Amino acid sequence: MKTIALVGCGRISARHVEAIDDTNGVDVALVCDKDEARAKTLATKLDVPYVTDYREIRDVDVISVLTPSGLHPRHVSNIAELTNAPHIVCEKPLSLTLREAHEVYRRVEKAGKVLLPVYQNRYNPLVKLIKDLIETGKLGKIHQFVCNVLWNRNDAYFNIDWHGTAEFDGGVLYTQASHYVDMLHYFFGELAEHKGIGGKMRGLEVFDTLSAALSFRNGAVGTLNTTVSVYETNYLTEFVLIAEKGTIRLSGTNLNTIDFWNVEGMERPDMDFTINHQYGKGHDALYEYVAQKKWDMFPAKADVLSGIRMMEMLSY
Prior knowledge:
Strand order of the largest sheet: 8-9-10-7-11-12-13
Shape: globular
Radius of gyration: 19 Å
């Protein structure tokens, strides 16, 4: 049994708890939050101990860092150096800058620990299918793509102290659309050229809306549109791929539905799945890999750094 300590008991912690509960071979052993009331509430619910300082964590197999985005570099590095946990899971994004990402890896590696960044969208079976079709050449030359992440985050969401700040949030690309930016990087590789504009419609320190035209070194061109200002509720997540030998459209809460399929020599696969939350099922796969010690299923350092470079380029 792999024991997990959760550092950060905010919004995303519920998804990690759910995924761990649904996975054989892993268990939450302890929770941590500097807000004692919040730590105690989750600890009571899970019937586990809590601490308010991650430096006190000892003798767990994995520490999952679920704190505000801008604090990830500091927390991951300190946990690597100051605790005896051999593996550290880090929620997205690993950092808001490429410089910080290099520093995190340097400190984690020097401490002899293993960093496991959360890239749960890569474990989405439909995303994996598209990746395979591209890599095997079954779609032929990739011509164009459209990626839209059109969500709602209400004013109450941005009343949380770190949300919407330049120091800790990073904006819609880093906090909401980051997994879809990574998906484009996962599919197409290195960015060649980009043009776009971001908007601060909500009076935040960061962009709440962004539109960009992108081209990749493999020749693919397309658009990314993302916002958190849709009225009342999330509207749409979609990915359209137009290729030499096929056209595909994925949509749904977390790209869980094939809306259109016309691929040479391939029937539409029966791979739609149902989810009851916005995060998808990728965290379940992540903790299954932890339980099975499949560390190679997590993105490699070079891949992570390349993706953060792309995110930084698109931050305008």
